[in-house]
Amino acid sequence: MTELKNDSSKLINVGFSLHKQGKLEDAENAYKEALEVDSENAEIYNLLGVLKLQQNDVISALYWAEKAVEMMDNEYFYENLFQVYIRAKLYKQIVKRENNIIEKFPNNFSLLFNLALAYKNLKDTKKAINYYDKALKVNPASYDGWFNLAHLYSIEGEVKNAVSALKICQKLRPKDKDTEYFLSLALMQLKDYDKGLKLFENRISRETAIALQNKSYPNKASIDRLWKGENIKDKTLLVYYEAGFGDTIMFARYLPLVANRCKKLILSCQKSLTPLFKLNPLGVDEIIDSYIPEQNIEFDVHAPLLSLPYLLKLKGERVFAYPEGYLKADENLAKEYKEKYFNNDKIKVGIKWQGNTYFDMDRVIPSEEFIPLMQVENTQYYSFQTFEGSEDISKLKNIIDIGKDLINFSQTAAALANLDLVICNDTSLAHLAGAMGIPCWIVLPYEVNWRWHSYLSKCDWYDSVKLFRQHKIGDWKGVFEDILNEMV
């Protein structure tokens, strides 16, 4: 028996040496030979699990890693098994091992961290916070631990704790752009715009921002031409969008302020917003809505739209300049829509349930959640859903589909001008309604965007907007019950 074990040990060593050299097929053969000699050796099963995961054969890795743990309660084996579970997104399998881990390996950072990660992905934020906290007591120098903890605190509305966690991240990784960017969001959620807006400038150096800048104007982002808030009364300023429609509408409030600072203001915006901004120039002298070679644009300095409040040095409540009514609808077009769609004596309610799903699915509301609201007497509902998601209107009855006729935001504004109320998800329609001073109820997911701050109901950006937030993750029914109670 001793000789056999010695043979298996030699084969394991050979396999391990080949494994380290990256000769995975040869290493696998050596491990399996060792297994033929010593089939009860849990280490061989574990090594095969590690190897198979490296080969992206998750199913085989799962078999070998689980076999190793079944044979021996070894914390290193558990660490490897959890890596397989994470790769396979089998987070519930990690949670099933929770009691055993806590009982036998209560001070293993990796296992505690991955328990937290599992609960985070299962949307159980409170348990995730608990395990990140335990893991950080074992290893307080873990950047990833503090960073993930900050995100969870933010989800739970414990934004001050999120700021504290991100400040620790700052110490662990000084001048890290991502850390400072997410710290800016947390500070702004707390309405600390004096500190938050400065750190928010770190977004310009993030990969997504650079990609957009390079796509739009490859040389525009040269640092020597970036406006830094200096006197430009004799200069032409190019301001360009950098995010979604809602962000462009929201930050357009600052255009009149910056127009007073420069000789000429050029705005580069999304094409579907152009008719709206031509109707509401907001001090803009020229609008660009299609690609023009940079050498054909005459400007002295440039600035991203979302940098304007920082560059204007707005402090305190001045950040919320122009709280409502800075955008108007085309009166003639609004009358046309009234005759076509809104010529009735009912309370007219516009709804939308989905925006751009490329970045965020949590803000998408199942269209059928609106059905109870439609039972309220003397109401007529209008769908403002356009493009993606518009097919879900089939789940609703007695609703007028105006979204199919809306091509740009000027048309949308004209339609909105005929409404008594808008009820929608966190999307560009909400910003447009708020900017026009039209009553709007925004239905928010449990994890709210920084701009809606940390309290419910009140909206600082638009006086006509009221906020409704989920009581727990994924619970649309509860928040729509709140809305129904508000309506009846």
Topology:
Layout (H helix, E strand, L loop, with lengths): L1 H19 L3 H14 L4 H13 L3 H14 L3 H13 L3 H6 L1 H7 L4 H13 L3 H14 L4 H13 L3 H14 L4 H13 L3 H8 L6 H10 L15 E9 L4 H7 L3 H5 L2 E7 L5 H6 L6 E3 L12 E4 L3 H4 L19 H11 L5 E6 L26 E5 L15 E3 L7 H8 L4 E5 L2 H9 L3 E5 L12 E2 L6 E5 L6 H12 L1
Parallel strand pairs: 1-2, 1-4, 2-3, 5-6, 5-8, 6-7, 8-9, 9-11
Antiparallel strand pairs: 10-11
Helix pairs in contact: 1-2, 2-3, 3-4, 3-5, 4-5, 5-8, 8-9, 9-10, 10-11, 11-12, 12-13, 15-21, 19-20, 20-21
- What is the number of independent domains? 3
The count of helical stretches stands at: 22
Helix content: 40-55%
CATH fold-level label of the largest domain: Rossmann fold
Overall shape: it is globular
Distance between the termini: 81 Å
**How would a textbook summarize the main sheet?**
7 strands, mixed
Assigned CATH architecture of the largest domain: 3-Layer(aba) Sandwich
Flag low-confidence runs. none
Please state the structural category: alpha/beta
Please provide the count of β strands: 11
Instruction: Report the C-alpha radius of gyration, rounded.
Output: 28 Å
Strand order of the largest sheet: 7-6-5-8-9-11-10
**Overall mean pLDDT score?**
92
CATH level-four homologous superfamily name of the largest domain: Glycogen Phosphorylase B
Top-tier CATH class of the largest domain: Alpha Beta
The portion of residues forming beta strands comes to 5-15%
